[in-house]
Amino acid sequence: MNDRNAKAGIGLVSAAIFSFLLWLLYLRPDAAGASDRLAWVPAANASFNAACTACLLLGLVAIRRGARALHVCCMLCALLFSACFLVGYVVYHFDHGDTHFAGQGAVRPAYFLLLISHVVLTAAALPMILTTLYYAAGRRFSDHRRIARRTLPLWLYVSVSGILVFAALRAWA
């Protein structure tokens, strides 16, 4: 596959995922009869984000130490944990609908600043993650390294801020 087709595919997949999530949260009619049967999913999703964060950090340490095989394993596990998060997020929000933040006062704008930055950077990180993976799979390590230096901080922010969003929703429910 040439770069042009790969980047078009990555852009299309990223746009489709993000568009679906926007529809799910903001355009789809409210979930009728939402129940508590999936109340455990947000905590599982926060755990997936924590595991992703750990894998990203371990992968960084591994590549800096020259342990390429361990780096690959860690990064693929981070990708797997992110995918598990996405599945859990879709299933939960399809059943439950949007979760409203009940906090008041100074915490409210702080929460929404965190949430907005999390969402915007998620939209930016997804195609970067897929492009970084594409370069690694094609053994184009100089291109991989160049984009990974920008992808890693974004991916870490998205993972950690996802945990903080969960914690804030639990604290101010």
Key features of this structure:
single chain, 173 residues, mainly alpha, 0% strand, globular
Describe the protein.
- With 173 residues, this protein is an all-alpha fold.
- The protein has one domain.
- It has five helices and no strands.
- The termini are far apart.
* Annotation, overall tally of beta strands: 0
Q: First CA to last CA: what distance?
A: 48 Å
Give the percentage of residues in beta strands.
under 5%
Class per helix and strand makeup: mainly alpha
Low-confidence stretches are none
Percent of residues in helices comes to over 70%
Number of helices: 5
Indicate the radius of gyration in whole angstroms. 17 Å
Order of helix and strand elements from N to C terminus: HHHHH
Report the average pLDDT across residues: 94
Q: List the domain count as a whole number.
A: 1
Which shape, going by the Cα principal axes? globular
Largest sheet: none
Concise overview:
This protein is mainly α and 173 residues long. It has helices at 3-27, 41-64, 68-96, 107-137, 141-171. It is 81% helix and 0% strand.
Write the layout of secondary structure elements.
Layout: H1 3-27, H2 41-64, H3 68-96, H4 107-137, H5 141-171
Helix pairs in contact: 1-4, 2-3, 2-5, 4-5
